[in-house]
Amino acid sequence: MNRLKKNVTVHFFSIEAKVEFFKNFVSSFVANKANDLSSRIFNIRTKKHLIKISEEYLFLSISAYCVTVVRERNTWQTKATSDGKITGISSNQGIIGDPYFFFVVPSKGILLGFTSGPSGSLKSVGKSMLEQFNTDRTEQIKLNLIPKEKEFSTLKELPAYSSLHFKLNSSSLADISEDAPQLIKNLSSAPYIESNMQLSLDLELNDSIGTTLSKENIIEIINYLSDHDGCSLLKVKGIDNDGTLIQLDFGNAFLNHKTEITTRNKFIDEETSTKILKEALSKYLDNL
Asked: How many other C-beta atoms can be found within 10 angstroms of the C-beta atom of residue 226?
C-alpha cells in the first residue's frame, strides 16, 4: 500500500469557564478512567458523537488530558460492495464519521485540537466535548482562538469597517458546522455555487448601500474563517478613531502548529494524533 502524506494543523483555544469546571474536569477524567468508563456515545441534535478519554500526560509538571471524539457524518447513507449490493448502514455498526483529537490543559485554561474532518467544525466539537464534563448546566463554556498577532485586538478597537475580502474553496462548504456564521450558511446553500470553485468575495460595508452586516457579524465571520483550511485569503479594512484607513490581514493571525505526516492509513490513528499534540503543546510551553 502506498504511503499517504497528510497535512495537519493543530489549533489552540482558550477555555472560558469557572475555576470549578477545571477541577471537576480532572476529577471526572480520573474517575472514569479508573472505573473503565473511558468511552460513551451521546447525541447533539441529529448527530451521534463518541467520546473517548485516553491518558494524562505531564509536560514540566503541567498535565494534559487526551480526549478523542468521533462525530457522525450523516451524509454517508449507504454501503456498496463489489458484488453490486447496496444497503443501508446499520446503527449497530457503531459510528461512521470524522475523528477529532484534543488535549485539555486545565492549569493553563487551554484546549489543543485538530481533525481530519471539516476544519470549521473543530471549535463546536471541542465545546460539545467539554460540556460533557460540565456539572453546572447553567454555566456556558466558551472557546476562543488564541491570537498570536496584534491584528485581532486592533479589529475590535476599530469603530467602523469599510470592507471585508476573502477567498474560499466551495468544497469546504459541503459540511459546515452548526455554529457557522449566517453568511457562510447562505453560501453553502446557494444553488449557483458548484463544487471545487474558488470563491472570491469583496463586501463593501457601508450603510448607504444597505449592507446589513454588523460589527459583531464581521468579527464572527473572521473568527470562523481565520482557522478554516479552505480560506486562502482574509482581509478587512476599517477606519480608526483618527479617520485613518487601516487594513488588517487575518491569513495567519492565530496560534497553530502545522506539520505533515506520512501514513499507510486513510485516517490518523490515536497514537499518531497523540504524538502530534505532544509536539504542539511542547512548542507552546517553550514559547511562554
From this structure: 21
Cell of 207: 450603510
Q: Give the chain's radius of gyration (CA, Å).
A: 21
Over residues 218-227, the pLDDT tens digits come to 888 888 887 6
C-alpha cell at 204: 463593501
H/E element holding 98? Answer: strand 97-105
C-alpha–C-alpha distance, residues 274 and 110, integer Å: 16
Distance in angstroms (rounded) separating the CA atoms of residues 145 and 224: 10
In angstroms, the CA 133 to CA 21 distance is 8
Please report, as a single letter, which amino acid is at residue 17.
A
Q: How far is CA 279 from CA 72, 83, 254, 260, in A?
A: 28, 45, 18, 12
Euclidean distance between CA atoms 210 and 213, whole angstroms: 9
35: its cell numbers:
472505573
The residue ranges of the chain whose pLDDT is under 70 are 1-3, 74-77, 84, 86, 89-94, 119-120, 149-150, 175, 206-212, 227, 229, 252
Q: Give the number of other Cβ atoms within 10 Å of residue 9's Cβ.
A: 16
Cell of 11: 489549533
